Predict the structure.
Amino acid sequence: MERGLLISVDGVEGSGRTLHVEALKKWLEDMGYVVTTMGLQTSQLMSEPLSEVKRNIVFQRFTLFLAYATDLTDQAENVIRPSIKSGFIVIADGYANTLKAWALTRKLNHAWVDGVLSVLPKPDISISLISPPTVIVRRIIKKRGFLDPLTSAVDLCINEDLFHSFLRYVNKFQSNLTALTDGSGTVFRTNKTFDQTNKEIISYVEGFLKR
Amino acid sequence: MELKKRKGVIIALEGIDGSGKTSQAMLLRDWLSHKLDTFFTEWNSSEWVHKVIKEAKKKNMLTPSTFSLIHATDFADRYEKYILPMIKAGFIVVSDRYIYTAYARDTARGNDLNWVKNVYSFAVKPNLTFYIRVPVEIALSRIKENRRFIKPSEAGDGMFPHLTPEEGFIKYQSMVMDAYDRISKEEDFIMIDGTMSPREVQTKIRERIVDLLWKEDS
Ligand SMILES: Nc1ncnc2c1ncn2[C@@H]1O[C@H](COP(=O)(O)OP(=O)(O)OP(=O)(O)O)[C@@H](O)[C@H]1O
Ligand SMILES: Nc1ncnc2c1ncn2[C@@H]1O[C@H](COP(=O)(O)OP(=O)(O)OP(=O)(O)O)[C@@H](O)[C@H]1O
Ligand SMILES: [Mg+2]
Ligand SMILES: [Mg+2]
């Protein structure tokens, strides 16, 4: 049996990750592939505990980082490795680069972050989604109804209103993500229509599969 | 004697299960808390991660990497919430097991030592680390005398499914002890013979703490 592969889709909240993962999954399934999805905070081990306590530990960056690293590693061992072994395609809705960009934007040491996450399998295809911060904020507000301080980097917001602070956060996050993607993946801008971005992603993945 | 002016202090106790760490830590805490602001913390006791670990072990969900990372999460939670602020505020933190427990246990499970060291490198090293060293057989006999059963975690948590709990204890604790012995020198462990009476062990520990915290009268 042929070995499967891992496609990671990274980006800040509101970048369009989930939507593009679903669309890519559907396209791959139509092409006849078996596709499994996983992603940040969906492990059996950590997703429930994390959603319960996340709001109480917004300022504990090492704890949060390690909890997410545990979450991804649990899925690496229970989902990614077995699926790839069976010849499936795994799509990650938020993977190492999303977590790394989160951490670097909070000034955690790059070598430390890389070292901790070195136990994770490297993606075969790495896709990062970025959009102008104002577009991101508008999407989040549309979807959730408001900007939730606790998921909008309130830990980095000092002496500033949350809205502007969050814009700057998204900006830094995305420049970190772009740097992380450089050389090992491709950045797609999602400030176009969904169909346009979707087409670009699919032709990129298609190109890879034809190789 | 006059107290030295210094920031907070962290004192760690390490050793295999049954070596006497908790007994010593309690004596130490009671003695210190009369004179100084003291905080006691033990391994695997984060208010929320502890429950997750317990559940995961019951369901046999952990692999060597997730075993290591989830214990690191537990440690980080206590470190960021209690240990670091306490040290900064000038407390004496008495830690029943510290990062070296992870070095020893995680490598016994097959994780790479340098990887484990990196995971825990965000934590400050203790001012003093007491390594209470007791032969595995003595630790086992103490545990059997006092509670008559061996916890799965003391026998490697499923690492040796074919061994009896006692055999598992001997095997696992020997691996952990070897790991402690290997890092003892480079991590400046103060090795203490744990087969002495609790009182003698405590005296040795206090001698070193007096040196650290109080000025010599000269
Ligand atoms: N080109 C585009 N690509 C993706 N999403 C777009 C695009 N243009 C507009 N959108 C809108 O942006 C929103 C993205 O939401 P989605 O849940 O996919 O993002 P996400 O990054 O997964 O965020 P979350 O982390 O909240 O799940 C959708 O409501 C979608 O309609
Ligand atoms: N120096 C000693 N001599 C004899 N028995 C001792 C000594 N110190 C402790 N004990 C006994 O040995 C048992 C284990 O001691 P203790 O719980 O302090 O060890 P521990 O290192 O904390 O173990 P664990 O890692 O399992 O928590 C206890 O029943 C205790 O009363
Ligand atoms: Mg999403
Ligand atoms: Mg104990």
Remarks:
- Chain B touches chain A at residues 48-49, 51-52, 56, 61-63, 65-66, 69-70, 72-73, 76-77, 79-81, 115, 118-119, 121-122 (CB under 8 Å).
- The first helix of chain B runs from residue 21 to 33.
- Chain B is about 50% helix and 10% strand.
